[in-house]
Amino acid sequence: MRVTSETGFESRFASNGNVKLHYIAAGSGPPVIFLHGFPDHGFGWRRQIEVLSSKFRVLAPDLRGFGSSDKPRGHAHYALLPNLVQDVLAILMAEQLSQASIVGHDWGGTIAWWLAMRVPSAVRHLIILSSPHPRNYLRAMADSANAGYFGYVRRFQEAGAAALPTPEELAAWVPDVDDRQALAASLRRSDPEAMLGYYRANVPLGRVPDIGPLPLVRAPTLVLFGTDDPYVPASAFDGTFREIDNVSATVALPGAGHFIHHQAAGFVSREIEAWVSRPPSSFRGWG
User: Fold this and answer.
1) Cα–Cα distance between 267 and 276 in angstroms, integer?
2) Is residue 250 part of a domain?
3) Considering the domain boundaries, does residue 133 fall inside one?
4) What is the model's pLDDT at position 97?
5) Domain range holding 154?
6) Would you say residue 286 lies in a domain?
7) pTM of whole model > 0.70?
8) Per-residue pLDDT tens over the stretch 21-79
9) What value, to the nearest 5°, has the Cα angle with vertex 220 and ends 25 and 286?
10) How far is it, in rounded angstroms, from Cα 34 to Cα 126?
11) Which of 108, 117, 200, 205: CA 20 to 30 A from 8?
12) Which of 52, 58, 89, 102 is nearest to 223 (CA)?
């Protein structure tokens, strides 16, 4: 363990086989794991970490391929099952934990959904940002009316896609200057081929995979999304409650885009804190 002087957060590593995963940690108390998306990094949750670390043990990894985590070559290394889900379990193991509240945005949200479905005992609460349930996401992608939202999925798989915009351009969505510079620095340590491997391994070019029947999510689930997200249609969140065998809440943020943990940081942090502060047993009689 070492403490990063720039942030005051602990810098730690976990291992999933030969893949070393970097994560930052702060606070003490019930554990909460934050999973970022593309293009982002663990420190992108800074505002949420600062709020929750007063009461919780907060862990935020750089996903494999990003930042200071390893970047194995080959798209198969970025398959949701088993690799990306197992990475989260490796962090739990490194912290000697069997369970945590899981917060995920974008690809981190997709990983969180699959973790909650496949390893329900590991998920105390589930909080999802800007990431529909996998069934709804694929259904929305297959709808030609949504082609304008999902064009990037095809672009990321075409020849030459690894020639991404510069780290500074990829980080331009971050409103805070210091946070933007931190993300650009992290993206310079990231591997474009690895980052695009998430799309190539899980959404093959030209077809929407049939994921078959899925188990219901058993954790109390909070879903937050922006109504003006340019990458995910709001309709993709319709019917989320049907995939959850517990209390669930879906909150639309009017006028917000895709990166709501920055665009509405205070609101998102408060919603997360309120959700994970409740004992899971208390949700059964909620409402």
Assistant:
1) 14
2) yes
3) yes
4) 98
5) 2-208+216-281
6) no
7) yes
8) 999 999 999 999 999 999 999 999 999 999 999 999 999 999 999 999 999 999 999 99
9) 130
10) 10
11) 108
12) 102
- Residue 1 is predicted with a pLDDT of 45
CATH number of the domain within which 176 lies: 3.40.50.1820
CB atoms within 10 A of CB 282: 11
Q: Output the CA torsion 206→74→45→81 (10° steps).
A: 70
Give which of 268, 269, 222 is closest to 246, Cα–Cα: 222
What band does 213 get if pLDDT is binned at 50, 70 and 90?
Answer: confident
Provide φ and ψ at 160, rounded to 5°.
Answer: 85, 0
Neighbours of 215 (CB within 10 A): 11
- On the 0-12 / 13-18 / 19+ scale of CB atoms within 10 A, 111 is buried
**Phi and psi for 253 in degrees, rounded to 5?**
-100, 105
Number of domains in the chain: 1
Q: So what's the pLDDT on residue 285?
A: 53
Q: Pull the structure tokens for residue 117.
A: 């479905």
Tokens of residue 194, six digits: 């690895």
